[in-house]
Amino acid sequence: MTFHPQPTPGTATPWAFPAPERGALGNGLTVLHCDRPGQQLVAVEVQLDVPLAAEPDGLDGVANILARALNEGTDTLTAEEFAGELERAGATLDAHADHPGIRVSLEVPASRLERGLTLLADALRAPALPEDEIERLVANRLDEIVHEQANPARRAAKALYADLFDSADRLSRPRSGTADTVKNITRAAVKAFYDAHVRPATATAVVVGDLTGIDLTALLEATLGTWTGAPADASVHAPVTADDQGRVVIVDRPGSVQTQLLIGRIGPDRHDPTWAAQILGTYCLGGTLTSRLDRVLREEKGYTYGVRAFAQPLRSSADGSGRALLAISGSVDTASTAPALADTWTILRTLAAEGLTDAERDDAVQFLVGVAPLKYETASSVAGTLADQVEQDLPDDFQAEVYRQLAALDTAAATEAVVAAFPPDRLVTVLVGDAATIADPVKELGIGEVTVITS
Length: 455
What we know:
alpha+beta; 6-stranded mixed sheet
């Protein structure tokens, strides 16, 4: 039998990320829009300048409750009526709060865009914030906290942020608040937070989809343009600092048969000129099943189902004072905790000594650049990335430039960036597992002082 030769991949060609057009409404709302013919489900992202750092003392989580309450009725519609109107329009409306602000996301068929935008505008302009719904959302959040405490991955993240950042920095505390703060949140607190921070002058709307035949400016003025509020300056984010001296924190879970690993520090954010190289190098280290960490810890040693390395922007400012969380995450069986950490440190030291290979670089570029058209095939994915750029004070062509850089970067640049991102002596290691079993073997590794916490 004769087989045809296996096809070989060609050179990755950077995909052109859509370039938005900018404008502004009479009420001060900044607008970015992209016409994407054929994408009949239009995505609208509204970025509200409501950073978590603006939450009043003792009310961590009020931004999260406000975000959830935006879907609970308006001055003319009850929560049930508002949900019914969204359903009749074939629309979905969601909102969440994170460190940079609150993001409100609408998806609606292009044929019903006017109705969807009207409902979105009402939610922003005059949310009902009904007391009974606020009480329900607070109760739901308190229930979530119990579940988060039982989730090893969430527990590891909570411990890492608390250890990396100063306790006065909002980054050190859970985004959606703790039980002690959430229970203090009332309807009056949510309304006061809304009145103080939600206004069109500091907000941005991103609209992406098939806008053929739509007078978008007129439509936006008739809907989101009715939202009014006092002028204000945009928030200024404080620089991000952290103590990433190498050390180990064990969150004790007696009897646990697995250990959750989260190894992290802070590094450059997306304003840094090495960001694209850092993406490439980090992908080679732990971006997929064929990356170095998985090849050793999963395929060769059988410690884990998978380990990932990633970078996640925290707070960003145009002056470059923001930072990203750089981390390695996974789980291993309890007995393999110390051996897995030892192998991880060996991988990092070998990487620093010998660098990445050209084959690793080529595979990573093929994936990162080649998958872009698929990653951004929907209007919501494009709108989300454009809103991220707004949120992080990045230029509108940032993502397009990243793809151009990824295709051109060489192996040496990727190596230099990933080695700088993960220095073995500057990593904070959080382990959620059975301290009585794993503490002594981990101490023998010499990767930093070991502290055991129980809550």
